[in-house]
Records
---
Amino acid sequence: MLQPVFVAQRHLSDYTSIVGRPLVEEIRERAARLQGKRILHLSATAFGGGVSEILYTLVPLMQDVGLQCEWQVIYGREEFFNATKVMHNALQGNPQDLSEEQWETWRRYNEINARELSDGWDVCIVHDPQPAAICSLVEEKARHWVWRCHIDLSTPNPATLARLLPSLNRYPASVFHIPAYVPAGMDGRAHEFPPAIDPLAPKNMAFSTDDAVYICQQFGIDVDRPLLCQVSRFDPWKDPLGVIDAYRIVKAQVPEVQLALVGSMATDDPEGWDYFNATVAHADGDPDIHILNNLNNVGAIEVNAFQSHSDVVIQKSTREGFGLTVTEAIWKARPFIGGDVGGIPLQVIDGETGFLVSTVQECAQRALEILGDPGLGRRLGRAGKESVRRRFLTPRLLRDWLELFEAFEA
Ligand code: UDP
């Protein structure tokens, strides 16, 4: 019942020219000590969101360096995902906890999946809270267990966290993006390393300016006028309404500016649609605000084109676990402005590789500075790209995982 996810091949050698030979050699040396180890990634979904983005590259690279690595997706129905959505929001600080019935549903689906899990794994990596109880239910099925947390646990709903902690504490090791996300009361060994993006994936591969322009034009963008852009789900914590407010302040001084809000939608996410509609209402028919989603056929290539072509890329989140979109934008050497929250400051050195802001006003001010000084934008973009190259590309993430596996074997 656990669904294996088939991933396209990737070869570490293809990344050598991008990340440099020393890192590739270090990875090969570490991997040599781990040949044939059976590694399983367990996650809640193979589509949408940051976790699947990461695994589509990390899993084939683990295979390429000689691990027997698999990725499986747990089984769940609507009632389970409704409960885990409440859990996800509560763990990031929403006051609403799960009902007793929802906790029971979460537990029941974890039991079903635990039963179905095959055994004999050297390491089982469980991603995020949805399948987190599985380790406590079938510890004997893997020699080592890791809980990989992708969310911001710095200000959780205390009741929800308290209820989850006994399951988390069964993991001998866990991995968080940053130390601030390790919750009080977490036992075991907490490790910290951030996620990464794949520079060779369609979303991040180098695009010619002409191709990016061609794609943006197809969506009604006037490519001869400045463009601000945010790529993210329609979610209050991503603050698309705040982005519109900042754009309006910019527009008062730079009337030709345009804004693109690009966000993926799930047809079965009513909350997402409500917020999408609220965003459309807030745009109030402004023809220079382009609100696009995957139902307009905006996929990875289009996201790449918008990020590559924009004069300023914004991620004005008010809460953000990591924010892959931040690194995606900076990798394209675009001037970037992000909310000073969660994982964003990890990726942006304010004033050097982008700007960090806390208000709509500040966001607009920085956008005006960048639009008024193309040299500034170029400097930020260049410095940002080099920092991503060193810190946030998948080979570095692979190296960090291998280091952890080696520690298990020591
Ligand atoms: N994304 C996308 N299309 C969209 C909006 C988002 O492909 O219309 C991608 C985005 O490029 C990124 C991921 O979805 O790779 C979102 O990850 P992030 O960590 O930024 O936020 P999350 O949605 O996980 O909170």
---
Amino acid sequence: MKVLVIGGGGREHAICDAISRSPKVEGIFCAPGNAGISEIAECVPIGAMEFERLADFAAEKNIDLTVVGMDDPLVGGIVDVFEERGLRVFGPNKKAAVIEGSKAYSKELMKKYGIPTAGYETFDDYEKAVEYLKTADYPTVLKADGLALGKGVLICNDEEEAIAGAKTIMVDKKFGDSGNKMVIEEFLTGHEVSVLSFVDGRDIKIMASAQDHKRIGDGDEGPNTGGMGTFSPTPYFDKEAELFCVEKIFKPTVDALRAEGRPFKGIIFFGLMMSPKGPKVLEYNARFGDPEAQVVLPRMKNDIVEVMEACIDGRLREIDLEFEKDPCVCVVLASGGYPSSYEKGKLITGLESFEGKDDYRCYHAGTRLDDEGNVVTNGGRVLGITAKGKTLKEAKEKAYEATQWVDFEGKYMRHDIADKGIDVKIEKGDEYA
Ligand code: AMP
Ligand code: GLY
């Protein structure tokens, strides 16, 4: 088979890596890809939003399966374009991807079908939002309705901050048209867990759990980022939590989408808060997480292509997903200055240290090859240094050891990735009863 992957970050590198382990696959293409991906796939210089050009490429090259890694093309309807042209593609169509594309829609869906989530109100009028904020409880959470590179969420500690935030989203349009509507949401506390799942329109199979670290600094200090590191599995998603979520969140979500005439095929990523009142949905994503994919996929024993094909054909119930016991940790190496401004084009050294080391992976995110063929930095998040170990502690130690094998000017990382999952005792009341 020939497979085309759409995207060019660490997530897509992990997806290409998983696809390369499939005995069915003889060729991988990636558009646009990056320097690391180009070692296992042929990178194609077509942008992820150029749907017709991508479809032309898939048709010309007789691609058997296209896998869409990124949210923007999914929400924009790339799957519809491919399907109309009879091209086989893995991912939700535009109608189904709306669970990520509109927070107002996803909240409405959860409310209608009784799926646990934070209480909320939706506004399309700034003045009305301000009125509401004058009587709200604090902290409170403001969310731009549409996609905003993971940055459209503001946690506000008081009324003044919240009104300024509402202005940023709805009047100044910092996140563009994503701010035409805004959700104001109850602030939840607890551990955040990511659960990725395969869905075939009717059935859902969940993957091993993961936990992200969204803030830039150690101890969860500083601004939000796309994700500074992950580990899998997380102790905060135990068997009991899983049983609760399967019955009250995962299956009801898939059923709700089907009932609404939006059957979902692809990956649903459940962003969950394990709150004192039980698990609640923080957000849905219509794709693998980044950097969740980097710790979940290396542990998956199944042939990913077989699972994706089962989703497309509506026979996911025939598949049993299996994951290795060994935990996995990913530490993101970022450009100094990220998530604000940072420089690009810094030479990356030491990448060869990963060759032949099965327990380790160096997933490329923002990298490219310069004119001389050197690998240089090309984004905020640069590399995802990933390792497996017998225990989470060992995986963490190995990942951090490997962060020393590579270097570039301004290299920045957090030093506490996975600490939340090591030596924890989970206290629970009767919230999952
Ligand atoms: P989202 O893009 O919806 O995942 O939001 C980004 C981040 O904001 C989440 O990962 C949480 O850390 C935080 N967040 C979102 N919604 C809430 C909420 N209702 N209560 C507390 N934190 C939240
Ligand atoms: N790591 C969070 C996300 O991919 O949205």
